[in-house]
Every structure is written in C-alpha cells, then in structure tokens.
Design goal:
By secondary structure, this protein is an alpha+beta fold. It contains 3 helices and 4 strands. It has a domain of 71 residues.
Length: 104
Amino acid sequence: MYHVTRLLETNSHVRCLLSDFSKAFDVIDHGIGLLTGLNMPPAILSRIFSFLTGRTQQVKHGFHLSSPKAINRGIVQGSHLGPTLYVIMEGDLKAFSNTNLLLK
C-alpha cells in the first residue's frame, strides 16, 4: 500500500492489479526447463527432477479408489521444495512497461 499511496500523492489516478497466488503451487510444471538455465550443480538438478517425476495420485470416494494417474504439475503439500520451485518458475515476470511498477 505504501507504493499506491506514494503514487496517489503525485498522480491523478493509479491502477492496481492484484493477484491471488494461493493455488500457485498447483501449476508448477514438472518439466521445469528453466532450472537448467540456472547455474546449479547437476547433482542438485538431478535430485529435483527425481523428486518431481514419477508421481501419481488417486481419488477415494467412499469405498471406491480410482486407478493411479500420473501427475505432471503441482508440488507435494508441505514440501520444502515447493516455494523455491515457485519462485524460480515465476522469477522471470517483468513489468510490461517502464511506467509500470511490479511488486512480487
């Protein structure tokens, strides 16, 4: 809010776009190719890819259990790796124009 208040002091109007990232961890792509662009040791990259690949999920309703389905997006709830992977995935967000202010 500080930035909005500061901008309102010098401008006649301010437009704000607010995003809710509460479900953000559900969209993390398991084929995160951008990880390879980071200067990480191959052993760490291998562990991350190993953690993400080969996961399945099932749905239980009453006494019925679905067959396992492969998942290729999302992070295991409560994993410590999730927030880091999300920051890496969204780290390349940039403002559309120099007149825009992007706060992450």
